[in-house]
Structures are given as structure tokens and as C-alpha cells.
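User: C-alpha cells for this one?
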Amino acid sequence: MISVCMATYNGENFIRKQIDSILCQLSLDDELIISDDGSTDRTITILKEYNDPRIKIYTHHREKQKFMYGYTTKNIENALIQANGDIIFLSDQDDVWMDGKVKKILKELDESDLVLSDCSFVDSNLNVLVSSKFKFEKFKKGFWRNIYKNGYLGNSMAFKRFVLKYVLPFPNNVPHDMWIGIIGNIICKQALLYEPTLLYRRHDMNVSFVNNKLIDKQQEKNILKLKRRNVNFVFQIHYRLIFVQSYVLFLLKLIFCKRKI
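Assistant:
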């Protein structure tokens, strides 16, 4: 059984296309878990219009977070808690899954426990900006590489259920995808699928940071002007220190609890 876990918040502009691209790849026994963070637009109405028993909607009561990504992290955590599947897929509300995504990732999971697939950056209208995130960012697995420059994207991840017992609950003020990716690298067999399986929208409403090189590339081609986020140096150091502290505590817990990796 597959559980697709999605965190939503005011996603009416894009969510229908994403839901359509997911449901057509799931069986009747699978589920799409939606955790909504109090949307004030038509997000919930759109979801209910499907009248599909595979769509299960839960309300997340948000609490104030130190960083903006904290809201998404706690919201997706709520979705993961509700999941019943043996295989977990993570999903954003505004992307589009490419045809065959589920089959390709399930094949990779035959020999691994966690899969991170490539994706293509697109604009709001699904015009391709960068065809391969892996190639563009020269992505590599590993702790130091991703502490310096995190390349793990939750919307590109799928993993076996046992991973949840290690990564949940998410530490406070730690990005969930960065946490799953880096922790997954030490507790399970992690694989990279060097093939884009989704269209990753980049627009003003994204919570994740906009890569400055990507913006420059877009401006050079006159494709799209995205606003630069004011991500100052103090913030970058601060959240990395929090992550490292949480990571060390996790390792100590593994050692003292004598968990088998």
C-alpha cells in the first residue's frame, strides 16, 4: 500500500493539477493523505469535490514557528502520522508528477529503502527553466555536502515505512526534507534516481529558498523574474547550527538505545 503525504495551505491555484497527476498513478487501495494548515481559500473545497475515498483530509492546528519552513515541517509531520502505507511518498501541493513516477520509484525501492529522484524546475505555467536539478546543483548525498548546501527535496522523496520510526518526530526548527535525507543516509540504503519524475514549480509563494543562480539564469533568458528571498548570513548559520545539534542528539540516542542500523 502506498501513502502519498501532502501538506497544504492556500493551494487553490495549482492543487487540482497536482492531485490529478497523483491519483492516476495510485491503485484503489492506496491513499493520499492531506494535512491542511488552515487554508482560507478553496483548497479544501477542491479536495472534497473529488469525492474520492483515497483522499483523506486532516486539519493541522498550526503553532508559531521560529522559521517559515517550520510550518510546512510540522504540517507534513501531521500527514506522516496519519499514513498507513508500507511505502511513503512526499508531495508538495503545487507540483506535477510526471507519468510513470510511482512505477519508477517502486522499482528503485526493490533494492533500496529511500529514493530521491531528480526533478525539473518549472515556472507557474509549467515552462521548463532547468531540466535537471541534480545536474544544475551538482547534487551529492552526504552530511557535509548538504549541511553546506542542502539538496534534499521532500517532494522528490519516497521511502519504506520503517524510516518513520527514526525521523519522527521532526526536531523543532529543522527542515523536514533535509532531516529525512541526511538521517536516511545513515539508517538505511539510500538511492538516487537520475531521472526527473516531477515538475517542481518555482514561484513567489514557495516556502523553500530560491537559488540565486537559478534566478540569474531565468533573468538571462527573460523567462521569469522571481523575487529574491532575504536570507541573511545570520539565519543561514543559525538554522545549520540547530540542525547539527539535533543531528548529534540523534546519533547519541542511536548509540545509547543500541538501535540496529
